[in-house]
Structures are given as C-alpha cells and as structure tokens.
Amino acid sequence: MVEVSNAELHVMQVLWKHSPQSAQEIVAQLQQEFDWHEKTIKTMLNRLTQKQAITFTKQGRSYLYSPAVSQQAYQQQASQSFVQRLFAGKVTPLVAHFAEKGKLSDSDIDELKSLIAKLEDKQ
Amino acid sequence: MVEVSNAELHVMQVLWKHSPQSAQEIVAQLQQEFDWHEKTIKTMLNRLTQKQAITFTKQGRSYLYSPAVSQQAYQQQASQSFVQRLFAGKVTPLVAHFAEKGKLSDSDIDELKSLIAKLEDKQ
DNA sequence: ATCTATTGATTACATATGTAATTCTTTGAG
DNA sequence: CTCAAAGAATTACATATGTAATCAATAGAT
C-alpha cells in the first residue's frame, strides 16, 4: 500500500477534489489553506510521484498531476489499518468515543441509523 | 497532545494492558509478538518517557513503568484527529467503509445499533 | 574489596518527513 | 540568436523514527 505522510495527504486531497491539475494550480489551492512555500509543495509533488501515489502527463513545459490512488481506496485502507492498530479491528468502540464526546450530530446519528438499517436488510 | 509513533504504540499497549511493569516484563511481552531486540525496546521506553507518555518509579536497580496517558484518552484524541484528517470530522463515512468491505460482523452491527439507540434516548 | 552481570543512559546510523534553496532545462521575449 | 523567467530535478538540513550498539553505574558473587 502507498504510504502517504500527513503533509502529503493534503496534496492528495487537492487532487482528489479535482484532477488533473498543474503544479501552479495545486500550489494556489494549498496556499489558501496552509502557509507553505511553493518549493515545499513541489517537493511533495515529487515525493508523491516517486511513491506512485500520483502520476502526471506532460503539458508543454509543465505537468498535469492526477491521483494514482483513489480517495476511496486510500480511505478504506487507512481506516482499516487505523482501527486495527487502535481498536483491534473493531469499529464500534471508535464510534463510541465520538458519541461520548458529543461529536455526533443529529444528522450523523440519522446517517448511521440508515446505514445500519441497510446492513440488516442484507442479511 | 502526546505523539506516539507506530512502534511506540505497541509498547503503550503492553502497559495499558497491565501496569506497572518492569522493562524486563515489557520486553518479554513484546518479544512474543514482535521480532524486536531488547535494546530497541529500551530505546522506545526511553523515548516514551521523554515524551511523557509513560512514567516510572525506581524499584531497586530497575524501573517500573506505567502509562502517563490513559488508553481511553489516547484512543479518543487519535480517533478524532484521524477522522478529522481523512473524513473532515465525519465518522459515518468511515463506518460505511467498514460496512462495504464486509468488516462488520453481526455482533458489531448489534453493538452499533444499541449504541445509537442509547444516543437517541438522550435527546 | 573487586569483578562481573544487569539495567538504564548515551550514542549511532539509516530512512522518513517537513521545509526549503539551488541547479538544470526549456521556452518565449526581444 | 541570446537571455531571462518558469518549471522540474537535485540537493540541503533539521527533526522523527526504526533499530541497535556502546557506555556507565551499581548490586550481588566470590
């Protein structure tokens, strides 16, 4: 699996939102949110390319970058390994933590409920 | 918040399971699960101490280590920051990923259901 | 009293990560 | 055709992490 660092993940997220994008566009997006130097972002694009987390096609003198890993796939694997590490693979205790901290809005609860209803249907 | 690395987390887990424990005991526990050198584990105990993730009391020539951060607290904060980073703070999509992958057992679903029932009661 | 085994402390070294600066290439301006 | 601006590639450097080895202190054996 592709290992993406914390900072690199933000770059991925920009590309997941919309792709392909030029380095210039990516830099512009990220600088609205973070205080990162353009050079820093270029480095991350480079490392992500090496890790094969993103790809590019040449567009004249510059590149157009795209994710090589879908957000879905990444979220899925990261979630699983996280829950594995912290909760021995059980997702319920994690949800319980959110519940305890009052981090679940009414709509969250509704969504969870309908998700579960769907799961029960399947059986 | 205390930042604990991947490998260090395994040491924490041994201490969360039971504490206080001597380095010797901790090493024994971890070596059943991992192929780590005793020196490696000592290093991690040292780093965790510096990070104030664990504490110790002298017991003759050796130390007895204990967690300085509860498992609850750690799980809570790590879960929140994880869900924040990957799912913009929403826990439901994470659960949905587990569901899709068939990672939810019947008992998981039951637990989630009763958890939600409890939440709805509160309102 | 001296020596050795044990335990913690310090040092080591490679790779990863955050954060850039510098260099190399290429293309458009003049 | 020449040169400077712009983009990518390479290099840099500090801290974190994985993985130990070495050093130092001390308690128990002889």
From TrEMBL, chains A, B:
GO terms for biological process: negative regulation of DNA-templated transcription. Keywords: DNA-binding, Transcription, Transcription regulation. It holds the Pfam family Penicillinase_R. InterPro entries: BlaI_family, WH-like_DNA-bd_sf, WH_DNA-bd_sf. One of its GO terms (molecular function) is DNA binding. Belongs to the BlaI transcriptional regulatory family. This is Transcriptional regulator. It comes from Aliidiomarina haloalkalitolerans.
